[in-house]
């Protein structure tokens, strides 16, 4: 009742986050939908496709720490808006490489994927800053989960649609359509994103709810002069809690990037589905992952409101969900396509349930360097964007089968459980002292 009476401007901000993150993941997964047709059109093998898949990840990882620093230095709105416009424009340009000679087309596509990765690097550190400033602690996991569930919504919505586009118009139009959509959304984002104290529709009651609930409403006001110091990286890299979270995110993202890159190819090449059929089949686990992600946030915040510790509220959904995601390994032993889709649906429901990494960043990062901490977290997590496509490409090329790939992804899910249970200790906010030499609860 209190939340309803206080106002709902923060939910409008959450809707914008969801839409932007949906387009972000549609852009980064666009190559997987077009992958088989592109592979045939350009005459490249599985290893070459794996490297093209990974190109996004190389630049995305390199851009994380600078992107997080830019947020802490200049604030959320200008950095995020410029990034959204840039990666949408670069996505659009990928649609024109097919008209180049083959060698130039492959090189240009690889380069553009690198640039898309670099331009998109600030996205999730920016999301963490927005949710930390716009949502109290007891709503933060739900808000983060809803925004994060956009990665599954992107596949559920765009995989069938883009599968039809590939078949009807050609793979180039996947990039053209998504690029134009992102450019339009960047204008909407520029018009609607504000920090809490500057939002023209935010009432006093809702601002009070945010402040009293632990939202960092003055986060962007602290951006500017000085910003974070690079010596703070050493501080972040010596915190056991953060190291465990980083490991868990890397392993969780190995599952994500299997889904975003090789999963449609697996359905087409290993299961004999058509491009359109693979698009619809990929949508079912994506919808399940979206549901699991939202439920994970609701469960975590519900445990917190019922008086359980922050540690239990965040760890329980993470560990249980990641254990469920191991079920994708069972696809090795089943024959029917329906069974494969059912197992993947269960696995990605679990993956969504356990995807609370960004909530943990918002809960634990020193408030003065939340962007830098988010960038470092996403650097570790998105190393999987580099390693997963390449490793799977080699496994498929060497064995002629996707069995090794499924085992690899399942092993990462188990390793994430180890990280959350044995390495991450008590979850608490780290504070940055004046001298920056150590952090304390």
**In what range is the share of β-strand residues?**
under 5%
Radius of gyration: 21 Å
Count of structural domains: 1
Overall mean pLDDT score?
A: 80
Distance between the termini: 32 Å
What would your notes on this structure say?
InterPro entries: MFS, MFS_dom, MFS_Na/Anion_cotransporter, MFS_trans_sf, Sugar_P_transporter. Pfam families: MFS_1. This is MFS transporter. The chain crosses the membrane at residues 50-71, 78-97, 171-190, 241-263, 275-299, 320-349, 369-396, 405-427. It is found in: Cell membrane. The chain has 441 residues and is mainly α. The protein has one domain: Growth Hormone, Chain: A. The chain is built from 20 helices and no strands. α3 (46-62) runs antiparallel to α19 (383-399), α7 (123-134) packs across α18 (370-381) and α15 (310-325) packs antiparallel against α20 (403-423). The two termini are 32 Å apart. The model is unreliable at 436-441 (pLDDT under 50).
């Amino acid at each position: 009742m209190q939340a309803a009476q206080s106002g709902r401007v923060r939910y409008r901000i959450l809707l914008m986050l969801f839409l932007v993150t949906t387009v972000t993941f549609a852009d980064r997964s666009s190559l997987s939908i077009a992958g088989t047709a592109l592979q045939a059109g350009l005459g490249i093998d599985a290893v070459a496709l794996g490297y093209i898949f990974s190109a996004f990840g190389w630049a995305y990882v390199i851009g994380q720490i600078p992107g997080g620093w830019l947020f802490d230095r200049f604030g959320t709105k200008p950095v995020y808006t410029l990034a959204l416009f840039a990666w949408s424009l670069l996505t659009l340009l990928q649609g024109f490489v097919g008209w180049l000679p083959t060698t130039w087309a492959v090189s240009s596509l690889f380069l553009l994927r690198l640039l898309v990765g670099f331009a998109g690097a600030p996205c999730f550190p920016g999301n963490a800053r927005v949710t930390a400033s716009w949502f109290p602690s007891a709503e933060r996991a739900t808000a983060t989960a809803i925004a994060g569930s956009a990665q599954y919504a992107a596949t559920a919505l765009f995989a069938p649609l883009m599968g039809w586009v590939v078949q009807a118009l050609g793979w180039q139009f996947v990039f053209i359509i998504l690029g134009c959509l992102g450019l339009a959304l960047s204008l909407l984002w520029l018009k609607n994103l504000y920090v809490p104290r500057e939002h023209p529709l935010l009432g006093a009651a809702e601002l009070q709810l945010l402040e009293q609930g632990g939202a960092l409403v003055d986060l962007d006001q602290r951006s500017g002069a000085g910003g974070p110091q690079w010596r703070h990286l050493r501080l972040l890299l010596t915190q056991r809690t953060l190291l465990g979270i980083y490991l868990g995110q890397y392993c969780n993202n190995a599952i994500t990037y299997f889904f975003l890159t090789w999963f449609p190819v697996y359905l087409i090449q290993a299961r004999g589905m058509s491009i359109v059929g693979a698009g619809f089949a990929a949508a079912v686990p994506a919808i399940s992952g979206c549901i699991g992600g939202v439920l994970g946030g609701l469960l975590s915040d519900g445990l917190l409101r019922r008086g359980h510790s922050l540690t239990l509220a965040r760890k329980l959904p993470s560990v249980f969900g990641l254990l469920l995601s191991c079920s994708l390994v069972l696809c090795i032993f089943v024959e029917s396509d329906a069974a494969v889709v059912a197992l993947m649906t269960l696995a990605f429901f679990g993956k969504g349930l356990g995807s609370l990494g960004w909530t943990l960043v918002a809960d634990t990062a020193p408030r003065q360097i939340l962007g830098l901490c988010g960038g470092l977290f996403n650097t570790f997590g998105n190393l999987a964007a580099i390693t997963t496509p390449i490793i799977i490409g080699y496994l498929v090329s060497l064995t002629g089968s996707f069995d090794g790939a499924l085992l690899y992804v399942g092993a990462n899910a188990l390793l994430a459980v180890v990280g959350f249970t044995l390495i991450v200790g008590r979850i608490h906010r780290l504070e940055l002292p004046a001298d920056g030499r150590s952090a304390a609860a």
